[in-house]
Design goal:
This protein is of the alpha+beta class. Helix content is 32%, strand content 13%. It has helices at 2-21, 55-70, 116-129, 167-172, 187-195, 204-212, 229-241, 245-254, 310-321, 334-340, 347-351, 413-427, and strands spanning 76-83, 86-94, 110-113, 150-152, 158-160, 306-308, 325-326, 329-330, 361-363, 368-370, 383-386, 392-396, 401-406. The strands form 4 sheets. The chain has a 7-stranded antiparallel beta sheet with strand order 2-1-13-12-11-10-9, sandwiched between helices.
Length: 431
C-alpha cells in the first residue's frame, strides 16, 4: 500500500516537472493528471445566505477592515471566508503596501511566515505514509546529532536529557526547542542567540547541527513551547526524502496542488504583487523579519520561510478540509489528516509551556486544534495556524467552514485573530 501511494506521488511529481519544463502554466494547456490545474481557481463564489451566513453581519467585517485601513492601522488586507467548498466572502482592502495603488487580491503575494509550518508538516506526513518516516522514532534516527541533548537548568548549567526527542515532538512543539525572541532577555534565549539560533547563512542540514548543540528548555514531551521544531523537521524531511526542503515541498504538496505562487522565494517578475508592511518591525536577535521575497535564501526555513497568495493557500486549506484531497489530487490519506487534528498535549504539557494558543485549544501535528468549542469560537476539530505578520487560516470540520486572512502587520496579528473569529462566527446562522 505504501509503495502504491509513493508511486502515485512519483508520477505526480514527474507530471509536474514536465508541466513546468514545457511552460504549461500559460493559456491553452491543460494540467497533467495528478496535478491540480493552476489556471482553475480554488475560489468558487456562492451566495453567502445559501452557505448559512448573514450578509449584513459579514458586512461588519467589511466596515471594520475599511475603518482600520482608513485609520492607518493597516496598509491593506485580504479576507476570504467559505463553507462547503465555496466562498461566501472575499474582499481586499487598502493597498498592497506603502506607495502602492494596487488593492490586495487573491493573487497578492504575502509572507505567510509560520503558516509554512503546516505545509512542511504535511510534506513530512507524506513520508510517514510511505513508511520512510516514523512519528514515534527518535529524531536522532535521522539526525544523529540529536542523540545527546542537554536541558537548561535554572542556575545556567545543563544536564543530559533523560528522554529522546521524537519526530512527533517536533510536529507538536513539545521538543524543548525554543524561539529566543519570545523571551529575549532570559539567559536561555541569550545562550541560544550566542550559539547561532538566528543564523541564516547556512544550509538547513547544517543549521540543524547548530541547534542540536543548544540546550533544551524542557525535557522532550513534557511541555509545549513554540520554537524551532518545524525548522528541524524540515531537516529531517531533507534527509529522509533526499531532496532539499524547497524541492520536497514542491514535489509533494505545493506542486500537485497547483500552488504556483507559493515558495521559499518568488520571481522578480512578480514584484508588482508583493504585499509590504506599513513599516519595518524588528524582532530581538532577528531584526526586520520582512525578508526580500525575490532573494533565494541559503537557509530554507521550515518554520517560516514561505510566501503565498490567498488563492494558493486556499488550495492547501481545502485539501485539509476535504481530508487530504483537492480536486481529485490526493496528498494525504484521511487517517493522516485525522492524526494531524488529534491533540498532542495534556493540561500539564500546556501549563508547563508558554505562548499556547488559548482556552479550548490543543495542538496537533503542525497546527492548533480546537478541543472545546464552548471556550473557542470555531468548532471542535478546527485545525489552524497563523504567521507573525498576521496571516492566518483555519479549517473547521464541524461547521464545514474555512477562512484565509492576509496582512503584513506584526503588531496587530493577535487583534485580527480575535476580530476574525467574532466577525465570522457572529455571521454564521446555520452551524
Amino acid at each position: 500500500m505504501g509503495y502504491g501511494l509513493g508511486r502515485r506521488r512519483v508520477v505526480a511529481a514527474a507530471a509536474l516537472a514536465a508541466m513546468l519544463a514545457l511552460g504549461l502554466g500559460g493559456s491553452g494547456a491543460a494540467a497533467p493528471k495528478g496535478v491540480a490545474d493552476p489556471k482553475v481557481s480554488s475560489i468558487v463564489p456562492a451566495d453567502p445566505a445559501s452557505l448559512g451566513f448573514d450578509p449584513a453581519k459579514l458586512d461588519v467585517a467589511t466596515q471594520g477592515l475599511k475603518a482600520d485601513v482608513a485609520a492607518g492601522k493597516l496598509a491593506g488586507a485580504y479576507l476570504l471566508i467559505g463553507r462547503h467548498g465555496k466562498v461566501a466572502y472575499q474582499q481586499g482592502f487598502g493597498v498592497q503596501g506603502p506607495g502602492q495603488t494596487a488593492v490586495p487580491t487573491d493573487k497578492t503575494i504575502f509572507r505567510v511566515f509560520s503558516m509554512t509550518k503546516p505545509i512542511v508538516t504535511v510534506t513530512a506526513m507524506t513520508l510517514v505514509e510511505e513508511g520512510k518516516l516514523d512519528l514515534d522514532a527518535p529524531v536522532s534516527k535521522y539526525l544523529p546529532e540529536y542523540a545527546n541533548l542537554v536541558v537548561w537548568q535554572p542556575d545556567g548549567t545543563t544536564r543530559p536529557a533523560t528522554r529522546p526527542m521524537l519526530v512527533r515532538n517536533l510536529m507538536s512543539h513539545t521538543s524543548g526547542l525554543i524561539y529566543g525572541f519570545i523571551q529575549p532577555t532570559t539567559p536561555l534565549a541569550k545562550a541560544w542567540d550566542a550559539g547561532g539560533e538566528n543564523r541564516e547563512d547556512v544550509k538547513l542540514r547544517d543549521y540543524a547541527r547548530i541547534v542540536a548543540k543548544l540546550p533544551l528548555r524542557t525535557e522532550p514531551g513534557t511541555a509545549w513551547y513554540y520554537g524551532r521544531s518545524i525548522d528541524i523537521l524540515g531537516a529531517v524531511v531533507e534527509v529522509v526524502s533526499g531532496k532539499t526542503l524547497d524541492v520536497a515541498v514542491k514535489e509533494r504538496v505545493t506542486g500537485p496542488l497547483g500552488m504556483t505562487d507559493t515558495g521559499f522565494w518568488q520571481p522578480a517578475s512578480a514584484k508588482g504583487r508583493f504585499a509590504e508592511p506599513l513599516a519595518a518591525s524588528n524582532l530581538p536577535g532577528i531584526g526586520n523579519p520582512y525578508y526580500d521575497y525575490a532573494k533565494k535564501p541559503v537557509l530554507f526555513s521550515g518554520g517560516g520561510g514561505i510566501s503565498s497568495t490567498a488563492e494558493d493557500y486556499l488550495r492547501f486549506a481545502l485539501m485539509l478540509q476535504n481530508n487530504g484531497e483537492y480536486k481529485g489530487v490526493r496528498i494525504l490519506k484521511p487517517e493522516s489528516v485525522a492524526k494531524m487534528r488529534q491533540d498532542q498535549t495534556t493540561p500539564a504539557i500546556r501549563q508547563a509551556g508558554l505562548f499556547f494558543p488559548g482556552a479550548g485549544m490543543g495542538f496537533g501535528l503542525g497546527g492548533s486544534v480546537v478541543i472545546d468549542d464552548k471556550l473557542a469560537r470555531p468548532g471542535n476539530g478546527t485545525y489552524s495556524w497563523w504567521g507573525i505578520a498576521g496571516t492566518e487560516f483555519w479549517v473547521d470540520p464541524k461547521n464545514d467552514l474555512f477562512m484565509v486572512f492576509m496582512i503584513q502587520n506584526r503588531e496587530r496579528a493577535m487583534e485580527y485573530q480575535r476580530k476574525n473569529r467574532q466577525w465570522i462566527y457572529d455571521a454564521l446562522l446555520k452551524p
